[in-house]
Amino acid sequence: MDMNKKKAYLDVSISACPGCGMLYADASWYAIELGADVECGKCGAEWNPGKHKTDRVLIEFALDNKGRVSDVGYKNLE
């Protein structure tokens, strides 16, 4: 990404449902920091994403001068 552009970031955690294996992406502040449980939309199982985390990434949004997304990248946090 161009270093001169403005950027915004989102810390995302990926977790797998222990019941059916469906993958979910949640904001890390919710899934990891708060430790909130989530419910699978496929099988109905409830779990803590922090305990079933498969990855954690920092999504980086490059923004134009109007604040619109012009590019997206990521960095692995694991």
The total of helices stands at 1
Structural class: mainly beta
Topology, number of strands: 6
Which sequence of SSEs, written as H and E, runs from N to C?
EEHEEEE
Radius of gyration: 15 Å
Low-confidence stretches: none
How many discrete structural domains?
Answer: 1
Helix percentage range: under 10%
Mean pLDDT, to the nearest integer, reads 93
Largest sheet properties? 4 strands, antiparallel
N-to-C span = 21 Å
Strand content: over 45%
Categorize the overall geometry: elongated
What's the oligomerization state?
A: single chain
Strand order of the largest sheet: 2-1-5-6
Task: Summarize this structure as a short list of keywords or feature phrases.
50% strand; four-stranded antiparallel beta sheet; mainly beta; elongated
